[in-house]
Write a structure and sequence with these properties.
By secondary structure, this protein is of the alpha/beta class. It is built from 18 helices and 32 strands. Helix 3 (about 45-60) packs antiparallel against helix 5 (about 155-165), helix 12 (about 430-440) packs antiparallel against helix 13 (about 470-485) and helix 12 (about 430-440) crosses helix 18. It is globular, with a radius of gyration of 24 Å. Bound molecules: guanosine-5'-triphosphate, sulfopyruvate (SPV) and manganese (II) ion.
Length: about 600
């Protein structure tokens, strides 16, 4: 019986590449028996294969080939309309006890979860092709780099993984004879939200995702492996997996500072990581470079210094609002070899989305495939439409982006999307205070996750949907990591999104954020001036270069203003988090809160 089954399995597989070790073979066999695909394709990540897959995806209607003169190597994908963002309520961490995942995660007992998902995966690839996608997260040779293998029945996922990860034979090489790889099993199933589960089994280094083809739900190397599983590993092994961009900032005198910043989904990481400084800064010789735009893996080296890598090899970036004024580097990234998801198609095979140009096109096919005109009352593109582009397309890619030794980190920034209450920038008094600021980070929800948009929620370290274990232990981990550091990065808090009574942004944002970044860098090196306030260290108007902006000293003071009554309400709203953690809160958090209340 067993022989018959595995004979059948091997018949479907065709030739297994010689480098594939026995642990992988055994697991893939099991998945074949469960999913029963008609055909199995072992991906090698090579150019010939990629070309073939694109052709096939077009033939199957998965992708639309765009105007190759204007957008060489670019394709459009329209997702299922019920599958346009991460599904946080359908995302589970599966561990023996619920206490391991804490109050901020959905939990299932592993045996029950496997049983439930097995009924969904059972025969789900009949009539379909199973792709086996080997990949590495992190620069090859980095001590933190991790191998994953994703099994999927979605060609869209295969092609996206090819851009977002170091995909192909390199992974078999990195893995060698080891069993140490993340087993990622994915099927789009029938894309039914009632049969959709994204389950993580940290104790088995395993992810099972069913029923969605979208981004973070389906590209399992990204949020599932590189944040949820990795954060859990980092906790055991003294490193950190964070929802952070990594950028380099070089001053005119050549001094280079690397900065990490955690902003929640669709709150400005890609934009900040690719920032183009204002003219004056460029003339003076400032240079900003990108290491990563979404995820950072952070450790402390032998010398007690903080270092970080970007585990990804591409960007899965928000499209709406991106244009040659707001983010020219992102526009350059997505000019070639890019997959667009859920934007509008123009008659000449070019694309459009809200905010691309001031003048909308006369007509288009919208993201749902319907004819669209500017006055039809609908948006042409989904608010969470995305581009998938290789990092090497980025004109300001940092030379060390692929360095296995990572880059040093000297400042950490937390930021949320807050139209009220929260000032533009301030610095934490110290690490513990900084961790408190990160832990109590609030942000208005966005279209990156399904559910209501614009509601303030607590999003600790911008990691609420991505911490793969108990948030109590996660916060303790942040406090403990400090003990390994000789000198710790300085911690800052920013808010680019504060609005006036008429709903206009008080701060111009985007490239102009350079002015705030300059102060942050100078503070991180112990140079710039700051005044002590109830919230932390703050720049005075004369401490930030405002020349060339229509923002005077008075305006700046109102962007930075702290209304004591508003802030008391803010602290009350943090109760949401504190109550969830009742009794489990690290004492540092309780003290910080008491001190803040006393200061106010
Ligand atoms: P994920 O990929 O979901 O993790 O998001 P992200 O943090 O990389 O967000 P991204 O940079 O793509 O920004 C999302 C939205 O925020 C876009 O609509 C931007 O236009 C807007 N945005 C980014 N930076 C700024 C800024 O400085 N000011 C204002 N007002 N809006 C900004
Ligand atoms: C996010 O939601 O934070 C993203 C997009 O970066 S996704 O890959 O869908 O998670
Ligand atoms: Mn993200």
């Amino acid at each position: 019986m067993t022989t018959a089954v595995s004979d059948r399995a091997s018949a479907r597989q065709g030739a297994v590449p010689a480098q594939v070790n026995e642990h992988v073979r055994k697991w893939v066999d099991e998945c074949i028996q469960l999913c029963q695909p008609d055909r199995v394709v072992w991906c090698d990540g090579g150019k010939a294969e990629t070309d073939r897959f694109y052709e096939q995806a077009v033939a199957e209607g998965v992708l639309v080939k765009l105007n190759q003169q204007k957008l060489p190597g670019c394709y459009l994908h329209r997702s299922n309309q019920n599958d346009v963002a991460r599904s946080e309520h359908l995302t589970f961490i599966c561990t023996p006890s619920q206490d391991m995942v804490g109050p901020t995660n959905n939990w299932m007992e592993p045996k029950a979860a496997y049983a439930k998902l097995k009924t969904l995966f059972d025969g789900c690839m009949k009539g379909r092709t199973m792709y086996v996608v080997p990949f590495v997260m992190g620069p090859i040779g980095s001590p933190l780099a991790k191998v994953g293998v994703e099994i999927t029945d979605s060609l869209y996922v295969v092609l996206n993984m090819g851009i977002m990860t170091r995909m192909g034979e390199v992974a078999w090489k990195q893995l060698g004879d080891d069993d140490d790889f993340t087993r990622c099993l994915h099927s789009v199933g029938d894309v039914n939200p009632d049969r959709r589960y994204i389950c993580h089994f940290p104790l088995d280094n395993t992810i099972w995702s069913f029923g969605s083809g979208y981004g973070g739900n389906a590209l399992l190397g990204k949020k599932c492996l590189a944040l949820r599983i990795a954060s859990w590993l980092g906790k055991q092994q003294n490193w950190m997996a964070e929802h952070m961009l990594l950028m380099g900032a070089q001053k005119p005198d050549g001094e280079k500072t690397y900065v990490a910043a955690a902003f929640p989904s669709a709150c400005g990481k890609t934009n900040f990581a690719m920032l183009i400084p204002p003219k004056k800064y460029q003339q003076d010789g400032w240079k900003i470079t990108t290491v990563g735009d979404d995820i950072a893996w952070i450790w402390v080296n032998e010398d007690g210094l903080v270092r970080a890598i970007n585990p990804e090899a591409g960007y899965f970036g928000v499209v709406p609002g991106t244009n040659y004024e707001s983010n020219p580097n992102a526009m350059e990234c997505m000019k070639r070899n890019t997959i667009y998801t859920n934007v509008a198609l123009l008659p000449d095979g070019d694309l459009w989305w809200e905010g691309k140009t001031k003048e909308p096109p006369k007509e288009a096919i919208d993201w749902t495939g319907q004819p669209w005109t500017p006055d039809c009352g609908r948006k042409s593109s989904h608010p969470n439409s995305r581009f998938t582009a290789p990092a090497i397309n980025n004109p300001v890619l940092d030379p060390a982006w692929d360095d296995p030794r990572g880059v040093p980190v000297q400042a950490i920034i937390f930021g949320g999307r807050r139209s009220k209450t929260i000032p533009l920038v301030f610095q934490a008094f110290n690490w513990v205070h900084g961790v408190y600021l990160g832990a109590t980070l609030g942000s208005e929800t966005t279209a990156a996750a399904s559910g209501a948009v614009g509601v303030v929620r607590r999003d600790p370290m911008a990691m609420l949907p991505f911490i793969g274990y108990n948030i109590r232990d996660y916060l303790v981990h942040w406090f403990r990591m400090r003990k390994l550091m000789n000198d710790c990065p300085r911690i800052f808090h920013v808010n680019w999104f504060r609005k006036d009574d008429k709903g206009r942004f008080l701060w111009p944002g985007f490239g102009e954020n350079m002015r705030v970044l300059e102060w942050i860098i100078e503070r991180a090196h112990g140079r710039a001036y700051a005044k002590e306030t109830v919230l932390g260290w703050m720049p005075r108007p004369q401490d930030i270069h405002l020349d060339g902006l229509s923002i005077g000293a008075k305006d700046f003071e109102s962007i930075q203003s702290v209304d004591v009554e508003e802030f008391k309400a803010e602290i009350l709203s943090q109760e949401e988090l504190f109550l969830k953690l009742a009794g489990d809160l690290p004492k540092e958090m309780v003290f910080q809160r008491e001190i803040l209340i006393a200061r106010l």
